[in-house]
Specification:
single chain, 54 residues, mainly alpha, 2 helices, 70% helix
Amino acid sequence: MDDKQKTEGIVLTEAQQRARRSRSIAIAVALLVLVVLFYVMTLVKGPAVLVRPL
């Protein structure tokens, strides 16, 4: 391999960078929605969610 290729690595085009950013934002939004959903469901269930037989 050429030394220049080793140091530069993979260079993304503008379109690829935009696509990566869009995917990252979509994953972050989906994760946030999931966290909020779990939090809301815990509030809806109330304190009884912690009181259960072992």
